[in-house]
Design a protein that fits this description.
zinc, 5-stranded mixed β-sheet, metalloprotease, hydrolase, alpha/beta, 11 strands, Archaemetzincin-2, Collagenase (Catalytic Domain)
Amino acid sequence: MSDGTQSCRHSTLQLETSAYAAECGFKRPPPNKRAAATTKSGRVLKTSVEEKNTAATFPGPLVLPDDELHWDPKAPAQSFRSWLHEKHRNKITSTRKTLYVAAVPNVDPGVDFMQEWTIPNLNAGKNPTKRSKLDPTSAGDVEPLDPNDLIEYLTAFYHGLPVQPFPTPLRFVPWPDDKPKHRTPNPSSPPPKHIALATPSNLTRIRLRPSPHPPFTHQLNLDDILDAAIAMLPPDAYALVLLIEHDMYESPSDDFCCGRAYGGSRVAVVSSVRYRLELDRMQGIEGGHVWPASHCGRFVDGVLAEEEGFEFERDLEVQQVGVEEESPMRAAVDAAGKVEGEESGRGVWFSRVCRTVAHELGHCFGLDHCVYYACGMQGTAGMREDVRQPPYLCLVCLAKVGYAVSTELLGGGEVEKNGYVRERYEALWKVCARWDDVGMFAGFGAWLDRRLEQMTLET
């Protein structure tokens, strides 16, 4: 995964929001409100963990130019208390607790032209008539993702809930109302305006459009796919996520959309195609500074230095985790750096899809986008920000998930909730250990290891 950044040692880490946060108007909730946001009462008498140590485990959101919080700096903060009293929140019950993962639909021969739509044209603008091979700096062609790997990850991430494959295969098929003239043996003929997503009991029309920009030629309508997911939701499902390998769009003004959840309807759809490693250069992703190295102080300073008209002074008070200090974030950066350059394209692809799927399912739990910390529930405004976000849940968001499972479903109290958090971390660590040749998983595993040590010392 070489892009010329491997020489960076990430010797200082950005623990607080960058200097750009003030420029765009984002004000992070102060420490006392962050601590209060983790409690059921919404109040806290004292901060239980000294703030510097907390920051070395759960840093603040970076807030760089063109990030989500740049464009929406007044986004509301959802505390544990406000989440708990949300009127329309879906609670987990003993009869509705299963998370379902629907694998990528098969493509029927009648719509086999769709197969070409998953192949990126990386030479767009150079020779548009020639289909591109993979970027020579990429990891090369990779086999499809295995939904069983994702099920294993989600079983740990949402520990305590059963996670199962959707019981019947899905298929993309022709939409019956489209006239036959839309499909001829001539490969240059335009595709129809619709296809259909078929289950054994339902057929949902899916709109298509030519992609407005490279690297893909056509896109599927996200809203229609979400409708299909709602129609096939099993009665015992708490939520369902449907995987797609095609590019998607949500509104006519969209360039593309990687995923979306209808939390109230308990469904999510995630497209994996934009996360492939060979697209990094085209999408402006700097591989050497994806999470956890996105918190590298040198990297953050470099991004801000390139922002036209913005001047700042580096604040060492918020970049104090040195090479020697043993903290979860330091351990994560060092562990990820050891495998940098050795990662498989499929492993990186899988790690990115995992983070997004877990995020979208979080919305089904009623979680809003997080503004308290750098967190897996942060919103993202594009692919460059997406790969900079962490896979963990922050203290506030984990309080919500922990309560939903250990208290609302299992009937436990505070002691059981703390035990749940530890068991969840241990389950995630085991999954990360299996993928320790991938930067995100190596970093997440090291972070989890140190976080478990912290929890032992705190008890």
